[in-house]
Amino acid sequence: MPNVPTIAEQGVPGYSDYLWLGLLAPAGTPKDVLAKLSDTLHYALNTKELQDRMRDDGAEPMIMSPDEYNEFLKRDVAH
């Protein structure tokens, strides 16, 4: 649509939009349970089949530890 101005051209520089999906557990979930969930999710995300499927859907898998994901959520919510 060549006649539709971009969001930046409409006065919002630096705009970006994305969707992320993640696995969350209730507060107080034991660390060993979180570790098992994380390990299982990482195993699945590292399979070629799932990576190919996600990329075919336009997704970019980001594999994070539970602590990294908590920090990501804090930054994203603040942003």
Short description:
The chain is mainly α and 79 residues long. Helices cover 47% and strands 0% of the residues.
Overview of the structural elements:
Pfam families: TctC. Belongs to the UPF0065 (bug) family. This is Tripartite tricarboxylate transporter substrate binding protein. It is built from three helices and no strands. The protein has helices at 31-45, 48-56, 66-78. 47% of the residues lie in helices and 0% in strands. The chain is flat, with a radius of gyration of 17 Å. It has 79 residues and is an all-alpha fold. The chain has one domain (21-78).
Shape: flat
Helix content: 40-55%
Rg, alpha carbons: 17 Å
- In the residues, how many domains can be counted? 1
Can you summarize the main beta sheet?
Answer: none
Question: Low-confidence spans: pLDDT under 50, at least 5 residues?
Answer: none
Amino- and carboxy-terminal Cα gap: 29 Å
In quaternary terms, these chains amount to single chain
Beta strand count: 0
Secondary structural class: mainly alpha
Secondary-structure element order, as H and E?
Answer: HHH
Roughly what is the average pLDDT, rounded to an integer?
Answer: 91
**Total of DSSP H or I helical runs spanning 4+ residues:** 3
Beta-strand content estimate: under 5%
